[in-house]
Amino acid sequence: MNDHDRDRHHDHRRLGRELGLFDTDPLMGAGLPYWLPDGAIVRHTLEEYVRQAERAAGYRHVYSPVLGKRELYELSGHWDHYSEDMFPPMELGAEQVVLRPSLCPHHALIYRSRSHSYRELPLRIAELGGMYRSEPSGVLGGLTRVRAIQLNDAHVFCTLEQTVEEARAALDLIGSAYADLGIRASRYRLSLPGEGGRYVAGPGLWRRATALLREVLDGSGIAYEEAEGEAAFYGPKIDVQITDRAGREATLSTVQIDFHQPERFGLHYVGADGARHRPVMVHRSVIGSVERAVAHLVEEHGGAFPVWLAPVQLAVLPVSGAQEEPAAELVRRAVAAGLRAELAGPEQGSLGARVRAARLAPYQAVIGEREAADGLAAVRLRDGRRPGALPVGELVRRIGERAAARGVRLWESDAPA
Ligand SMILES: [Zn+2]
């Protein structure tokens, strides 16, 4: 296979359709993919992983609506500085409502809805929420350029003194998630404003935010490049870049320091001195959009997901109809243990055909006459290895251990990856 074939082979759009992960329909619209059951499992597992990592890092989750009144985006600055990327407003009686272009304004309002003491800071609000971008139809495709985005987003409201530490902790969280997911950052970019009038706030605030982000990157010992014209309209940001197999670069994760929106929304906290102070807003995303993250994982693994993400973790194959019952019992046992297991019986074809059809499942358990008599299953690993016959309870236990460990190792005896 040459490089070109390998790229094509790993194209997430092709694999997505072939493996039944996601698809599109012209009637739903371009850039609006839907998720099929196996793709939904990968997405759900990834989302739950991120929520758990965020909970462990002190974030608390909220839900907020995907629509907001036009006035909300006028206040946030999106209306003036970001409207070309937004859907046109909808008339609703005397009001205009807009599909939101980001989650920040909603989280600013959630912060503002209660009074806060300095003792509550840093306050970390996270959400996996929908947002929308009016991408031109020519650039839409697969999961990487979409109009409806599920964003892994969070906003940390903190004091100025806490800002660098919070931004650094966000970078650490990104790093540990990449290690768990097998994602490699191709480079770190400090994105600064460029020429033109797209940006808000005075140069003083930009200089301050940029200096803090440099401090974060330098303190973390991370090599980075500065890029003009890549900042958000309200502030500079650290972009974590990934590269696909065709060499195309994209931003997956971001950390931003924002003095602007706390001003616009009039946010404050009560300090130790009893006076009102302005918090800083740190915007950060660990895996960016769920769509882009899944597209990247599909391409990285060529559809052969690590055990914990695999739509089907264990395929159970009775050799003949006589072993259907013990095979079904193994599936029930695995499902009861929280695993994703499926039965592939003889009605689905010859044993060889069923083994090939289940080739992306990390584990196959073949049950013949001898195995059935002894309560065993002959184990095949996705990489072609055959560890031999194991008692079915032992097999379920081992797969459960591999899934919980979240690594890419298939078998206990493998060297850690
Ligand atoms: Zn934000």
Query: What's the shape?
Result: elongated
Helix content: 25-40%
What small molecules does this complex bind?
zinc ion
Largest sheet: 8 strands, mixed
Give your account of this protein's structure.
This protein has 417 residues and is α+β, with helices and mostly antiparallel strands. The chain is 35% helix and 24% strand. The protein is built from 14 helices and 20 strands. The strands form five sheets. The chain has an eight-stranded mixed beta sheet with strand order 3-7-8-15-12-11-9-10, with helices on both faces. Helix 8 links the parallel strand 9 and strand 10. Helix 2 packs across helix 10 and helix 7 crosses helix 8. The longest helix is centred in the N-terminal third of the chain and has 20 residues. The mean pLDDT is 92. The chain binds zinc ion (ZN). The site of zinc ion has 4 residues, from loops.
Produce a short descriptive summary.
It is built from 14 helices and 20 strands.
Write the layout of secondary structure elements.
Blueprint: H1 3-9, H2 12-18, E1 22-23, E2 34-35, H3 37-56, E3 60-61, E4 67-69, H4 70-76, H5 78-81, E5 90-92, E6 95-99, H6 104-112, E7 123-132, E8 148-158, H7 163-181, E9 187-192, H8 203-220, E10 224-228, E11 237-243, E12 249-258, H9 260-264, E13 269-270, E14 276-277, E15 280-285, H10 290-301, E16 314-318, H11 324-336, E17 341-343, H12 351-357, E18 363-367, H13 369-374, E19 376-381, E20 388-391, H14 392-405
Parallel strand pairs: 3-7, 9-10, 16-17, 16-18
Antiparallel strand pairs: 1-2, 4-6, 5-6, 7-8, 8-15, 9-11, 11-12, 12-15, 13-14, 18-19, 19-20
Helix pairs in contact: 2-10, 7-8
The structure holds zinc ion.
